[in-house]
């Protein structure tokens, strides 16, 4: 049998996590482009061996992460470790919170997708439209520094085109981290499964490092546990980490939104008075499965199902323009609208968040506000959905 000696195996490739050494720079439009060809975006495939391509992409992603986290810190966000009792060298997951968390009367809580890093909406959008657009930077600036922000969207359905949040009593921001839930002991940091698979190996053909219990973060072993940890560890500490009467706007993307819905459905009695409204992108929950005891609670004004119907919106993949009503209420239990994104679920948030903030502002400023039931009907054979009422 033919066997390669270890010294004959191809060495694991390495790429520096520095833009210029990777051959890229940031343009005046905040886009990452090639130094050799300023019109060209990031080139993923540089080798026939997937390992080379994956590691180069991870090096680029690390550059983006450093830039995004630096910009978020400059906007006033700080890192908070979960569990709260963990030290910097102990297994923990970082989240980002604004400095006014304990004093704000309104808190916007964001649960992203498990496949993304902290503060990143979509690397795909970062590459095509810009760093701030594909990350939470523009979003955070609009919330925390509204004087520096301007109108960024054209709303629909009669909404104002101004996404700036209501500043009554101050607005805080919490960016949860459903993606980086594996702790790498050697580097002392949490990472996504994608980053874990990009860790150095003995050779280019060796498998990824084996995960053990040492890599598990207590209370944050998966995205659902992390959602529970954020609510129970931070927001349940009324009068300590958050104000006694602070209202919470929940934004959830894909599994992040599913985790929030499942948690609140199970614990609605305890959280009913604190949740102002909910916005979801690419929702994964099902009305008849995740909204517990729906048939029994539907008639109760205080039920979670009733809250979802009146104080929740979802933005879905659709070829229709942003804000176009969709006929998915019976699936998700809330009014559904087009995100303006047709193909990639991860790209919904970058396109829809200004419209989401507009509606969350409306709901917060008017506690008695309730969503009107949409009646969507087909007009003509093969014609797009039309709206009979909103």
TrEMBL record:
InterPro entries: Arb2, Arb2_dom. Residues 15-322 form the Arb2 domain. Pfam families: Arb2. This is Arb2 domain-containing protein. It comes from Aspergillus cavernicola. The lineage of its organism: Eukaryota, Fungi, Dikarya, Ascomycota, Pezizomycotina.
């Amino acid at each position: 049998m033919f066997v390669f000696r270890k010294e004959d195996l191809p060495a694991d490739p390495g790429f520096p996590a520095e833009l210029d050494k990777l051959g890229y720079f940031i343009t005046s439009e905040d886009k990452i482009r090639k130094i050799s060809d300023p019109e060209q975006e990031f080139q993923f495939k540089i080798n026939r061996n997937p390992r080379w391509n994956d590691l180069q992409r991870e090096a680029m992603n690390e550059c983006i992460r450093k830039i995004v986290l630096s910009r978020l810190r400059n906007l006033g966000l700080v890192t908070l470790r979960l569990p709260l009792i963990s030290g910097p060298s102990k297994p923990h997951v970082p989240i980002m919170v604004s400095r006014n968390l304990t004093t704000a009367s309104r808190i916007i809580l964001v649960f992203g997708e498990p496949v993304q890093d902290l503060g990143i909406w979509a690397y795909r959008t970062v590459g095509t439209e810009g760093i701030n657009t594909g990350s939470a930077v523009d979003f955070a600036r609009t919330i925390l520094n509204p004087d520096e922000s301007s109108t960024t969207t054209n709303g629909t359905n009669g909404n104002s085109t101004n996404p700036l949040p209501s500043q009554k009593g101050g607005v805080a921001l919490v960016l949860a981290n459903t993606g980086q839930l594996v702790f790498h002991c050697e580097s002392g940091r949490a990472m996504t499964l994608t980053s874990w698979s990009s860790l150095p190996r003995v050779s280019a053909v060796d498998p990824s490092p084996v995960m053990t219990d040492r890599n598990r973060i207590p209370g944050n072993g998966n995205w659902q546990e992390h959602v529970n940890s954020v609510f129970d560890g931070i927001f349940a500490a009324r009068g300590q980490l958050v104000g006694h009467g602070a209202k919470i706007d929940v934004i959830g993307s894909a599994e992040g939104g599913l985790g929030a819905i499942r948690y609140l459905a199970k614990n609605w009695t305890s959280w009913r008075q604190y949740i102002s409204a909910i916005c979801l992108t690419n929702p994964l929950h099902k009305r008849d499965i995740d909204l517990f005891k729906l048939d029994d609670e539907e008639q109760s004004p205080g039920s979670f199902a009733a809250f979802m119907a009146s104080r929740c919106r979802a933005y879905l993949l659709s070829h229709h323009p942003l804000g176009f009503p969709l006929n998915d209420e019976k699936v998700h239990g809330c009014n559904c609208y087009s995100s303006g994104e047709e193909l990639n679920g991860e790209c919904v948030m970058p396109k829809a968040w200004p419209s989401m903030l507009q509606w969350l502002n409306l709901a917060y400023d008017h506690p008695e506000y309730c969503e009107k039931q949409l009646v969507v009907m087909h007009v003509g054979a093969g014609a797009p959905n039309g709206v009979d009422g909103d």
